[in-house]
Amino acid sequence: MIRRILLVAGGTGGHVWPAIAFGDWVKRHHPEVHLGYLTGMRSLELEMYRSAGLDPHIISLEGSPLGAPRGQRLRRWRQQFQGLSQSAECFREERPDACVLFGGYLCFPSLLVAKMRGISALVHEQNAWAGKTARLASRMGVPVASGWDRCAPFAEGRFTPVGVPVRSFHLVSRQEAWQRLGLEGEAPSAPIVAVMAGSLASHPLFLQVQNLAREDAFASWTFLFLGASSCLDRQGNRILLPRRWDVEFLYSVADLAVLRAGASTLTEVRLAGLPALVVPWRHATGDHQRANALQFCRDNVGQIWDETTGTEEELATQLKRLEASRQEHPRSGRDMYNAAERISSDLWRVLIAPLGERRGLL
Ligand SMILES: CC(=O)N[C@H]1[C@@H](OP(=O)(O)OP(=O)(O)OC[C@H]2O[C@@H](n3ccc(=O)[nH]c3=O)[C@H](O)[C@@H]2O)O[C@H](CO)[C@@H](O)[C@@H]1O
Question: Which positions fall inside the Glycosyl transferase family 28 C-terminal domain (predicted)?
């Protein structure tokens, strides 16, 4: 029986929210299980845990040494050793039966500590292209759960697709959501577009969509930019929303989404049933955002716009086309709560619960 689980995640919301979402599900469905959380020292990750009422263990890593600027590599390698002893300290305190690694730069020391202590471990890879931790873990015989049906470069059978655990949101009416976002008056009946650029809020995407929103053809539409900084202008049909964690109101009020292809946002948009224009971030490791976007568009109402080769006219045409398809096929996916619950439940049933019956996976 699994009695104590350590959830490890850090870096961006794309790693941290799946850990928090899965932890919340475990608390609701298996209250007898003790959960511990381990993260890094960046202010954004700490803000996310604290907004969820959690007080995680912290290891003092700034980022991965691999791919770090030349001048920082040595310091980061030193931090990895320090991270190893801090992770070991956390394992000693938490005494987990199992450890689930949701990714981010701080997973490597935890993977090693789990191996040294003979603790069952599992990696959840959110992306359709596996990162370094998942590939290394797989080579060490650690099971890998994935966010999508395909998880390159793994061959089928080397990973188990379960989806990305996301927070279980209840969608509300358009007008209630409008008010809960702090917006005045009646929610407009013309299309509302949610513009989401990941937890780090990709500025170039906001600027591209801002140009589009200024065109006459979109004058009656409303564009809500989540986490946009003040360098965008907030005139006319453009509304800047500060970074906020109650994104269910955005999903409730929006008709369409324009987004980066982070695995969690794509999953949330899918569960909310929003048609989406997906703009993969081209610098993502292994071009994983493009891999995510391709999988999303295969099964959902979505189109990819390539910011390196696509023109603004194409962006406008694709958005209009999405709106036309929304008119033809009314929105599905209002039961976002239960759809999200199923993903965490599958992760538990297929991979975590069996860890209790197997020993020495590492
Ligand atoms: C730039 C980058 O490398 N991004 C990667 C990062 O996630 P990144 O954090 O960029 O993106 P994701 O879409 O995966 O996750 C963002 C999460 O933060 C939430 N959110 C965001 C903004 C906000 O104001 N409020 C809020 O709650 C979203 O609802 C979502 O749950 O890790 C993911 C998982 O490996 C990858 O798929 C992304 O490609």
Answer: 250-328
**pLDDT 10s digits, 55-90:** 999 998 877 777 788 888 888 888 888 889 999 999
Residue nearest to atom 15 of ligand 1 (CA): 14
Give the integer Cα–Cα distance in Å for 349 and 13: 24
CATH topology match: 4-167+339-355 vs 174-333: yes
Give the residue ranges of the chain where pLDDT is below 70.
230-232, 333, 357-362
- Domain ranges in the chain are 4-167+339-355, 174-333
Residue that has been written with the tokens 């997906």 in this structure: 278
CATH number of 174-333: 3.40.50.2000
SS3 assignment, position 38: strand
**What's the CATH number for 4-167+339-355?**
3.40.50.2000
Ligand 1 atom at minimal distance to the Cα of residue 260: 13
Query: Which residue's CA is minimally distant from atom 20 of ligand 1?
Result: 199
> CB–CB of 148/343 below 8 Å?
no
| Pocket residues: Cβ below 6 A from ligand 1 | 12-15, 17, 103, 126-127, 198-200, 226-227, 243-245, 247, 262-265, 268, 281, 284, 288-289, 292
Reported ipTM: the value is: 0.98
Residue closest by Cα to atom 21 of ligand 1: 199
